[in-house]
Amino acid sequence: MLDPVTAIGLASAIVAFVDFGYKVVKGAAEMYNGVDGALGENMTREAVVKQMMSLSARLQSPDSSHMVGQDRALCVLSSECHKISSDLLRLLESLRPAKPNSKSHSLRASLKAKIKDSERRDLEKRLDSCRAQLALHLNFANIASVDKLSEYVRGNPEALSALQNQVSELSTLVCAMGLATQQLIATQRRSVDKILYDSILESLAFGGLRHREDNIMEAHDKTLQWIFDNTAREKHDSLLKKHAASPGDEYNGFYRHERGEITVEDSALRLQEQKKLLNWLSSGSGIFHVSGKMGAGKSTFMKFLGMHSETRKRLKEWAAGEYELVVASFYFWRVGSPLQKSLAGLCRSLLHDVLKAHPDLIPDVFPDTWKTAVQASLTEQVRPEIREAEVREAFSRLVSNISLRTKHRFCFFIDGLDEYETTGSFDAADMANQLNAWTLASGNIKFCVSSREHNEFMGAFPSAQRLRLHEVTRLDIQLFVQERLSDYKSLDGYWDVVHSIVDKAAGVFIWVSTVVQRISPMSFSSSTST
């Protein structure tokens, strides 16, 4: 069985030979009589022979007697091309004038070429047959699979040099190649690029890159759905009608007959905040700030928002079809590693996610690192070290590069700004200012951030683009409590306990989670007796 690098090298050699050999056969007489023909005016006799010999040397294939299928077909085809190359070289030699500057010798060579027309036509047919077999047997999706090549090279690092050499040699070997050859060489280049891309991405990654995000609690099935509820207006109008019809039929802000409903005031606030957020996603700019008390569920909210399909749908409206949308997230974590609570970690994580999804941006974002990686030889090929200063510069380049701004729009979700740990003189206020500066650098980047309601954030971000989470999650908390206490629903005092928990929670989800774990049947007994 042929390994992927050998297979693609052999296939490239066959395609290049067939393409060049066909032109040699077509233009042999003209070329050796000094007439411009199929090979072009710059191809001297010596250059043609040299190139043909070089191509012929690349057609050496391994023993195919034990091979089957496509590998065997490729080797057989290579052997046939090698035979044709030998016949072509003999033909070229027979047509060479003994004295090139002698008119009589050139005339004899011309007459000899006419005599050998049948031999040339036979070679032409054989080349046509090889070309047809290429179309029949070579499945580029299998032979030239970028993933297959990259995987093989990772397991066999020494193969990278061979792959790089194939790209370089084939690029200079054939001056006018057919589409198939160009496709093979392009695939080889993509394979080498992918290996280098992966190397740079590995340098950006750090331990625990996804740890904080992975450990954030998923939103309860019935909570936060209001954010993308396209019937919110109708529900609010219905609530207004019910309130007008029976204004006294209330208990603790909730209707007795439909305990899952919220007050008119809370419903109106939700509708307002929903509109504010959705408008920002689909057409807004700058920074949208999700603020809230400690334990209000900000991280869960950010994870829900960042991963929801409707978020992408709205952001694509912002991209307006003219730009490629790029989305990434970062979750600060005070108890995590230094990179999980620093600006350096923020930049590394966002760059890693953006460039993993769009590796073609790497040469523009890390030009020096990319140039070094491309120029490195196999023995020098190691994972590049990317220093923190380079990371900061790269991120600034990502958000401010003119060529990138005209092609992409970036939306980043940053959770837990209050968990950022001051580094040197760069404090939380500086972090907020840096985020604002990045958005001002380009109208094609915006951030959705979350934090506690600390002064440095409340003052830095516009209140018109702020959602105070603890003010709009009362019904979410109630739905959560009802689900967790569903086993007690038949007990007297069930609703009293539910509403008591919701009222005391004041928007703090984490407190509710602790309380419902401690509820027992006795809790309802004490509720009805008081």
TrEMBL record:
The keyword Cytoplasm does not apply. Keywords: Repeat. The keyword Repeat applies. It comes from the Eukaryota. InterPro entries: NPHP3-like_N (IPR056884), P-loop_NTPase (IPR027417). Pfam families: NPHP3_N. Residues 272-452 form the Nephrocystin 3-like N-terminal domain. This is Nephrocystin 3-like N-terminal domain-containing protein. It comes from Ophiostoma piceae (strain UAMH 11346). The lineage of its organism: Eukaryota, Fungi, Dikarya, Ascomycota, Pezizomycotina.
